[in-house]
Amino acid sequence: MHLESEREKQHLQLILDRVIEELDVDRGNRFAHHSYVPAHIEAQQLGVLSTAATAPQRARHLRRLLHALASISADLETMVAAMLYCAGLQAHRLQDKVPPNVRDSLAGIDELLQDKVWLDSLGSSFSDLDDSNARILREFVFSASQDPRAVVMHLVDVLVQLKNIHEVPLFQQHIFALECLQLYSPVAHSLGVGKVMWELEDLAFRVLFPSSYKSVEEWHRQIWRESSKQLETAREEFMHHLLCHQPLLSLVEGYTITSRTKNLFSTFKKMLRSNKRKEEILDVVAMRVIVRLRPDLREDASAQARACKIVYEQAVALWGAENEWPGRTKDYVSVPKGNGYQSIHTTITHPTGFTFEVQVRSEEMHMRAEHGDAGHGLYKGGGTQRDSVLRFASAIQAENIACISVQKLKW
Length: 411
Hints:
Elements: H1 6-22, H2 56-71, H3 76-87, H4 103-120, H5 131-144, H6 148-163, H7 170-190, H8 194-208, H9 210-243, H10 246-249, E1 252-261, H11 264-274, E2 285-293, H12 301-319, E3 330-331, E4 344-349, E5 355-362, H13 363-371, H14 377-380, H15 386-398, E6 407-410
Parallel strand pairs: 2-5
Antiparallel strand pairs: 1-2, 1-6, 3-4, 4-5
């Protein structure tokens, strides 16, 4: 249920008030100063639950879960479901405490809760969570879950647990971390919830391979210290170059340039698969240029391809063809991947000496790649039932839950 009307919000707020009453919350103790609470939930309406009647660890977990859900703009129904779940309450217990016209919203929350409880038992479905069994479970998630928000809520819940895994014995840490890598991280990627996926992978990596994690982490920090200012300068000079390029003005309305370092576990996997030393991984630092075409051209595939090609050519022209790495250019715009993924990739050494990857795609290509039709997660997230994955990704996009956790620079 996507919250559109004020009436729906009022209904859910009434349910939230009843949940807080059920939890016996000290109503003077509130989230008062946290900017992460979504705009549609006023801070004073989400009790902190530090004095709740439930066990202290449940209240602590709920606080963490609400914080994490808010960071990906989860809707109010999901917030209410999280409160009920952590308190061990069932939605039907509130039926007599809310007006009849509010009970439809309660039914939706109840369905979300049922899916969440089912997902809790997923990891224990097989005693041996090898690649084959993990693949079966991932497909089962996509085909059997009724509400995609329950899957996202579960992934966030898993992430919260993983962040606080030091609270359980070491052998349980290893079991849970392996479960995250085999099952939950691929599901998160298939659904386009990149922020959750990257954190799951890196935290599980730290638990399972602490020495390798420390080595890669220290190297990443060094790379970022050395390149962050240079990359910022490169972004600024490239943006200025693009805005001055006349042929693009007839096609393009604007650009978004983002930067990132490859997440730690991705670097580790690439080293193992390619038998490379970490210094040989050339896409640790990357710049992504998202091209926003003029409104009348946004659905024009040829205009999108033309604009991306020109932007790529301007990157090479600005920094010099001699600084582009041979064999590293991949034009997935002209020849899309089998799953529809489109982007132009190349690797460039800046005249100042640091090497980075450049990715160029249109805004439409980017949205499809991250959230929908291109199914970018199908080849990285391990999903093979395309229709099921895309149905989930589209539903999550419609609910405005999925997000891209990159720092954006907009001009």
